[in-house]
Design a protein that fits this description.
50% strand, 296 residues, 0% helix, 4-stranded antiparallel β-sheet
């Protein structure tokens, strides 16, 4: 089926339609900070880089074939729009976003990266793996990797502090952990013991998202148990819990947004309610700021 994306482009921020064609489910569309380029990624085909103003396909980012093929599981543009990273079967590749040229490749010997995450300043690249670890690499050197963590199941998401010294990760096994980038475990957030595959509570305790606040003082973790929790980054202590929905709603078949820090200075937390309301809460006082109606 064909998919289209209405995208603000140019200084006037007008809505424009890109003829993005895909023969598989469209997983993600990202826009560069200047609004001129788009990265589209589906489940089967190589990620595509588009010129959003001229509505032209610029390149297909097809990584080298790994030991199990080259299907891309994750493709992410860096926050500054200069780099793109892809994770495929046994390969992590960093691309120049302007030329679509490969500038760095890591061959995975054991771990298979399934999710790519950039640091907020675009200096660091995190790769979450199926075997419960997170690789930390300089942005342009994916082969220069430091491995952290050892969860019993896949790591869903991770984040790195602004100074590059701390990494937090969340896993399908129901646990979230905070690490020094040197390899020392600082704290387990919430549940201390991981769940097993056979545990009936597993589907209700999958930790889908995790992130640091803008000043790295708090950590936000979103779970399929219907809540998102805020932890103090120094002590690992839970300081706030609010309802948050992750899952399906109506005709939208892939609503997987975690709660998130937001606002001009990162001073709010955004939660998705079951009734379609998005609630903003002050992250210091935990008092409601305002409600927004939505279709999540």
């Amino acid at each position: 089926p064909a998919s289209g994306s209405a995208v603000p482009a140019g200084p006037e921020r007008q809505m424009r339609l890109l003829p993005i064609q895909t023969t598989a489910n469209l997983l993600d569309i990202q826009q560069s900070p200047d609004g001129r380029r788009l990265l589209a990624h589906d489940w089967i085909n190589p990620p595509k880089l588009w010129d959003a103003e001229r509505m032209l396909l610029l390149a297909e980012l097809e990584p080298p074939t790994g030991r199990e093929g080259n299907t891309v599981s994750s493709a992410r543009m860096s926050p500054d729009g200069k780099l793109i990273a892809t994770a495929s079967m046994g390969r992590v590749v960093v691309w120049d976003a302007a030329s679509a040229r490969m500038i760095g490749v890591r061959a995975e010997e054991v771990s298979q990266a399934t999710t790519i995450i950039w640091s907020r300043d675009s200096r660091w690249l995190l790769s979450c793996t199926r075997d419960g670890r997170v690789g930390v690499s300089p942005a342009k050197e994916p082969a220069k990797v430091t491995w952290l963590g050892r969860h019993s199941m896949i790591v869903r998401q991770a984040d790195i502090s602004k100074d590059g010294s701390l990494v937090v990760m969340s896993s399908r096994d129901g646990t979230a952990t905070l690490w020094k980038v040197t390899g020392e475990l600082i704290a387990s957030l919430g549940r201390q013991e991981p769940l097993r595959e056979s545990d009936p509570e597993l589907p209700k305790n999958d930790l889908k998202a995790v992130s640091f606040s803008s000043d790295d003082s708090q950590i936000l973790v979103s779970s399929t148990d219907g809540f998102a929790r805020v932890y103090d980054a120094k002590s690992g202590r839970e300081v706030f819990k609010h309802s948050h929905v992750i899952g399906y709603r109506g005709i939208l078949t892939n609503v997987q947004m975690g709660a998130r820090f937001c606002g001009p200075k990162g001073e709010w937390i955004l939660f998705a309610e079951d009734d379609g309301t998005m609630k903003l809460v002050d992250r210091k006082t935990f008092q409601p700021v305002r409600d927004r109606k939505s279709v999540v």
